[in-house]
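User:
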Amino acid sequence: MDRLAADTLLSARLDAVIDGAIDDKRIVGTVVLVARGGETLYRRAAGFADRESGLAMQGDALFRLASLTKPVVSTAALALVERGRLSLHAPLGDVMPEFSPRLPSGAPATVTVHHLLTHTAGFSYGFFEAADGPYHRAGISDGLDAPGLGMAEQLRRIAGVPLLFAPGSRWRYSVGTDVLGAVIARVTGQTLPDAVATLVTGPLGMDDTAFAVRDHARLATPYADGSPGSPPVRMDGHTIVPFIDPALAGISFAPDRVFDPASFPSGGGGMVGSADDFLRFLESLRTDRSVISPAMSQALRSNQTGSLLIDTRGPGWGFGYGGSVLLDPAAAASPQSPGTWQWGGAYGHGWFVDPVERLTVIALTNTAVEGLNGRFGIDLRNAVYAG
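Assistant: Predicted structure:
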């Protein structure tokens, strides 16, 4: 089959997935990009950026990136490691002596940048707990809510809750990247937004991506999953969206947080950006032409957690310095190649990079959490590989 025919079939499969998700009212709007070998094979904006006003989604729409922030901030940290300004394995106390998390026994714990990058420090997220869990009692923000909460107070609260486990002994997705953001600010003497702009987004020409909204008219309105059979609900003010298990607290969203300059810049979830910018970022890492060396880029996208269970992904996955890494496609029941790295964002996003197929796929939506862990992402992935 010639290339043109193959691309036409790919477009038809992806169009069917996107149209189905919108028609079924599982997502409100989306921007999807598929690139192979640096060439964009598929690009589509569909649905609504703002359903109530009838504003159609545009390809240059801006989204609250949530955890798509993490690999960008992680890359900034690795750039500082290469410049000798930060160590992967030295205790955080060398940089932030006032930050002193403790083990459940009360004994001091040694946390490193490596632990923060790989989510093996022993921290957690509030959405993994019931509403009366320790993170909720301490008022720890997941980085998506609590407008006006400053970084010093967030760090104090994090350090005040005992770690779940000894650093390095287990994996738990966590606020560790928020702590990493504070470390970056400390060693650079800049705010985290300025440091990330200097180290990553500026050099890569990611002009739409920042810890603030560059163009309010292009910002997609966020929506939350509706009840079964109901359309997504517009997020107005504080919104809690069920996640993983109805017995847990759910994800707490405050969309207006991004407009409050007093809110700490969340290294784990605070950036706003576009699909094209994120494609540029991922491609720079895939091709070893990023702001870090090829060796460090390869470390970022390689498994750094040994045989630890990555419980949010399941069997067959490890974790690198910027996302999960596919180790065993059969165990993971995935059509992707070994070495594929991927992650997502709670506002409704997903992405992956398959290095064998030289594929980069980005799907940003404005619907939490269907766009992150619902059928939409799985159906898109399967449509890409169906040919």
